[in-house]
Each structure stands twice: as structure tokens, then as C-alpha cells.
Amino acid sequence: MRKKKKMNRIKNNGLFWFTFLLLVCISFPVSASTDAKQGEVDVQDIVFSHIKDAYTWHITEWNGKEISIPLPVLLKSEERGWDLFLSSHLHHGNVHHNYYISKEGKHAGKVVEKNSRGEEVKPWDLSLTKNVCGLLLSCGLLLFIVLRTARWYKKHPYEAPGGFTGLMEMAVMFIHDGVVKEGIGKEYKPFSSYLLTVFFFILINNLIGIIPIFPGGANITGNITITAVLALCTFLAVNLFATKEYWKEIFWPNAPIFLKLPLPIMPFVEFFGILTKPFALMIRLFANIMAGHTIILALTCLIFITASMGTAINGTMTIVSVLFTVFMNCLELLVACLQAYIFTLLSANYIGLAKVRE
């Protein structure tokens, strides 16, 4: 018994140190070849260059050279029509077919062109960017996980699942029974597939965004466009399938008459609430994910900021940076799961409020 306990203790300690070293490796998403070569580090540029979308998928740097995957750029110019080429033609400020990447102004970081009047304009852009590739990756991974789990149940209809399939069953039943059914009520079935898809979609994208090495690192749920589409889907699910009682409470709520006539104060507040609910969903998910990535990148930049301050200060700040970044990565794992749960829970509650009958 003592030998068995000792072996279990060794395994647990080994698992702990393996996890710690893995988190340390994950804690360095910023390349050491930043502007530190000039003795100066532009933290804002480093942070936003990793968070914002890009026309190339950066992998790493080797001997001072960037290793990245050029992505296809598909544009439609008002004067020349459609054009398709690889983003490598636009590297280092190059101009290709009158297109270039703007470095300042409202179109900073986007492909623009000069029209016949010499004005900088943005063409219709349907390019395959880093976030789009990350989105395709996460959707493919989600389909693989769901279809793999469904195939197992088809082959083993009378067996209790274990391993990854058992973990999936636990997660699905937790969301289905504890969130969807509890939040919506009796009429939950038409919305269960949507809410389960939303939960796993957000969860997978959040987890992929934490991994800084290729093919991870795409800041998908930290992109307000993605969260806006998810919030719009919930907005449509709530309002397109709402009951008459729901709309009655919007335009003629159960409130004192002086709050409805002659000025429709309460109807205005209730109608405004229709828009604030999806807006809150959009901002909450976007802000939490982007803030987490920003803090981790800023903490990592401490190593390069203090590089010119001497060995003692730089060594101390390196240890502090690593410890705090490991802590933030652990916290980000919690936030990744929590934000997926909160978005699904609030969506279910909003749908349930629209389906309640008096």
C-alpha cells in the first residue's frame, strides 16, 4: 500500500511539473526579436499586432527572419474590378497592383488603394485573413468532436462512455439539463441545438486563442465582429419566436398608468432593453477575452522593457513576468470556460423570458 501511494505521489508530482512547464512555455507568445534591438520596446504595437487580424499567419522567427503563411487576398476595386493574389506581395510596405497595407488613419492595417483622384480608399475586401482561418479551424474541430462522439454512440448504443466521449457527455448533459432546460422551460427543444453549438463554439475558440503557437493564437472571440454575430443570433432567437405576452409586456407593461401615458416611459425602457441585452452579450465576451490576451502580452513585454536596465533588474522582472503570466494563463483557462457558460446561460434566460406564458 505504501509503495502504491508513493508511486501515485510521484505521478501526481510529475503531472504537476509537466503542467507547470507547459504553462511556462505557453507564457511566451511575444517573440524576442521585437524592437528591443533598438533599446526600445513599443508595447502598444506588440500587443495590438498580436491581437488584431492580419493577412498572414505568423508562425515564428528564425535567424531574424519571419516565418509565416501568406494568405490569399481577394479584393474588388471600384475602378479595376476583382483581384486575387497572396499577401506576401504586400510585405514590408510593398505595393502590388496599386494595393498596399495602410499604416495609419482609419484604415490602418487594412489593404487600401489610391484611386484616380489620389485618395486612399478601401476596396471591397473578401480576403482570407488569420481570424477567418482560425474560424475555419475551430469550426472543423467542433464538427470533428461532435461527429466523433455521435459515431461512438452509434457503434455502442448500450455502453457507458468513458474517456473523451464520457467527458463530452458530461459537458453536453450539464449544459442541456442545467442551462437550456432550466433557462427556457418546457419549450426548450427547438433551441437546445443552437445553445449547445454556441457553448462549444465559444469554448473551443477561447481555448485555441490561449495557445500562442501555430495553429493557435487567433484572437477570434476577442474580435467584436464575431461576438456581434453571436449576439445577433441570440437576438433573433429571442424576438422571432417570442410569444404575444412578451410583446405585450414590451409595448404595454404592467406598470402604473402615469408611466405609460401621456409619455411612454416604461414602453421605451422595455423596448430599449431588447437592444441592450444582445449588446451586453457582445461586449462582455469581447472585452473579457481581449483583456486577458492584452494583460498576458503586457506582462511578457516586461522582460524586454527591462532588458536595458541591468542584469539584476531584468532577471528579477523576468521571474516576476513568468510567474504572473503563468497565473494569468491559468486564469484565462477559467475565463475561457466561464465566458462560454455565461453567454449560453444568458441566451437561454433571454429566450426563456420571451417564451413565458401567463
TrEMBL record:
Ranges annotated as spanning the membrane: 128-147, 194-214, 220-242, 254-275, 281-307, 319-343
Broad class of where this protein is predominantly found: membrane
GO cellular component: plasma membrane; proton-transporting ATP synthase complex
Signal peptide stretch: 1-32
The entry's keywords: ATP synthesis, Cell membrane, CF(0), Hydrogen ion transport, Ion transport, Membrane, Signal, Transmembrane, Transmembrane helix, Transport
A GO MF term: proton-transporting ATP synthase activity, rotational mechanism
Annotated Pfam families: ATP-synt_A
Localization, UniProt: Cell membrane; Membrane
Domain of life according to the entry: Bacteria
Protein's membrane topology: Multi-pass membrane protein
Stated family: Belongs to the ATPase A chain family.
Record's function text: Key component of the proton channel; it plays a direct role in the translocation of protons across the membrane.
Protein name, entry field: ATP synthase subunit a
Lineage of source species: Bacteria, Pseudomonadati, Bacteroidota, Bacteroidia, Bacteroidales
Record gene name: atpB
